[in-house]
Structure formats: structure tokens, C-alpha cells
Amino acid sequence: MKKILPLKNLRGEIQVPGDKSISHRAVMLSGLGSTPVEIENFLMGADCLSTIECMRAMGVNIREHGDKIFVKGKGLHGLREPENILDAGNSGTTLRLLLGLTAPQNFVATFTGDASLRRRPMARVIAPLTQMGASIVGRNDNQNLPITVCKPARKFQAITCELPVASAQVKSAIILAALYADGVTTIVEPAPSRDHTERMLFAFGVPIEKQGNTVVKISPVEKLTAPEKITVPGDISSAAYWIVLATVLENSSVTIKNVGINKTRTGLLDVLTRMGAQIEILNPHESGGETSADLKITSAKLHGFEFGGNVIPRLIDEIPALAVAAAFAQGDTIIHDVGELRVKETDRLAAIVSEFNKISRGSFVADGDTLIIHGGAEKNFASCKTHGDHRMAMALTIFGAADSGVELDDAVCVNISYPNFFETIGD
Ligand code: S3P
Q: What is the mean pLDDT of residues 189-200?
């Protein structure tokens, strides 16, 4: 149980931890290089620690020191067969990307994960990998965990595939497998998803080609040329909670330092600005193909907004935080095309409706793949369930802090992506 008290305002400077998506990719790609890499501002959250453990189990040498890790890779063809089952914990990114990475290897690897990950859909990644030559067996007809990746029966072949959903995890799994495949693999997405894998591979010397925002072409390579150092930007998905809280709490002004503002991740900033938020982007700078900046947020009155389509993959993880903002806006906010929320760490659409309505009765409605939020209703103190989902826990925390307080059944799950989350609100 954790009780969150109402906050008067939010002021000062905030540092958010390193980006989760980029941290995963940094340790995986460094593991495929053959020279030492120092990774700075690495996210020491449970999900990325799962990736570290899986890479170690395949022979990669990784040393942790504060928020830095030092990785000595085994080369593109040097990973070894893990002696035991690989545990991806709660992390969809660990599992899906490592399915792509292990599928072409000449060894057997079995994966499992926690109860949440064991329920999540894996056929979306197993199907294209199988087309390339992978031999992967899941637990049931849905291909759920545990999953065994067998030695491939034939040499991997490039494919052209049109993804049915915009998913960076599926795209990245195929990209990693394509490094080992004969021919040019082409991936077409229905909308642009985050492109951290492409950017980081480029920094590792892989000539990956983009056509527009939704087509990626990748050819096999002999080796990855690792950079000596990677600096991970702050995670905009973690900054989202403070962006929303500072916006809706009167008399607030915060500067969130060094946040990644890759265009495939900044949908929240675009939508909140359209709703009336005051967000300034200061000191933008480039590092390793990613752009970071300081974000200055000042309190503002919000109004409802209707949106969907291509912006959704650019803010999919921020929808719980955005739903909180919408509850403080004047008028209705209507968010279309959010069916993917049903297959996240929990069914986030159902969880938002069941838990957020305990704080603001009748404000949150799910209608098919659309989330409707009636803004401006009265808020009350409530006891809510996080469903063991880190983003639900953090969104509920700011919802309570912004008005009447909240009690959470399980707040430990914030460790997945933001271990010191509660320190920022003085707890
Ligand atoms: C992620 C991609 C997104 C996102 C997840 C992290 C990644 O998932 O929701 O939290 O690091 O590639 P999908 O690829 O399933 O959309």
C-alpha cells in the first residue's frame, strides 16, 4: 500500500532516468560489437536489468557502476548458447528484440517471463521471423511464453513484410534477424514507430536505409563497429508524469533536464500543446544520433482535443498520463486508435476505465478502440489498483497528487522503468 498526498505545486529542476528503449538497444548492440563500450545514464530499471542478465547468459561481459555500464561484446557471431532459461521478466522489449537476435544463432534458447509477459502476444514477432528461417515454438496456439528458439534449419533469408501494427518491438526483432539474413529485408509499417534501433545501428556502422517514415531496408553485415561511449538521453516517457503534473497544478514551473526528444517519441508534447499546455524546448543537442533537450513546463489551463491515427505510436506509453491531463481539461478529449493499449503490461484501456473512474466518477469511457475522457469533473480520494503496471502506478500517483490524493495497492512496480520515481514528489 502506498498513500499519495495532494501536492500544492511542482517547482524546480527534475532529472529523469535514462531512456528505457535506448538502454535496451545499447546493451544488446554493444553485446554484438567486439570492442568495449561505456554506456552512460543507463536505466537501471528492472526491465533493462532483465536485458543485461539475458546478454550475460549468452556470454557478454557487462559490469555495472552507478548509472554506467561497461559492455565487452562477443561479436556478431560470438554469442554462446545460454545454459539456462532466459527470463525477460516484465519486459516486452527484452523478449521481442532477443527473439529476433537469437533466432538466427546456431544454438537453442528458451525464454520465459512474468505472469504479465506470459499473457502478451508474441505471434506478431514469431510469424515474420519464421518466414525468414527461424524455428520457434511457443507454449500454445497463441505462441505465448515459454518460447523456445531452436537452431534454424536453413540459412536466414531476407523478407519484405508489411506489419499489421506499428510496433517498434516487432520492427526491431526483424531488423536484428536481418543482420544475419541473405538479401535485403524491407519492413513497411502502417505508421512510424520509434526508430531507436535504426539510429543506434547507424552509430554502430550499419548502413540502414530509411524511405520516408515507414519503410526500412536492411542488408546483412560482417560486423558491428561499436562506438566507445553511448550516452542515453533521459526518458520522455518518464518525464511525461512531471510534464502533466506541472501543467495541471497551479503555480508550477519545472525544468526537466536532458530529455530525449526523438520525433517518434514526442507525440505527448504535440498533443498537450494543442490542448493549451506551456512547454518550452531548451538547449537541444545531439548525441549518438538522438536529440535531447531541457523541457520547461509552466501551469496552464487545458481544453479537450480529439485525435488518433499516426500520432498514437508516438505517444502510446504516455496515454495513461495524457488521460490524467484530459481529466483536468475543459471539455471532452477523444483518443482514437488505442487498441494496442489492451496488450501492454496490463490491459491499460480497461485499467484506465476501472481505476481512474474511482478518482473521477464517470469521466473515463472506452468505446471499442477509442478512449473518451470527460474533463473537469469532481475528483475524490480513492484506493486504486495499479495492476502491477508501472505506467498505471505513476499515472495514478500524479492523478492523486494533482487533486485529492490516492492510495495504491502496489507501487513497487515503478521499478520497471523509474526506480526513484517517488523521490521527485518528496516521498
Ligand atoms: C518499445 C516499443 C513500444 C512501447 C514499449 C517500448 C520499444 O511497444 O510501447 O514500451 O522499446 O521498442 P510496441 O513496439 O509493442 O508498440
A: 98
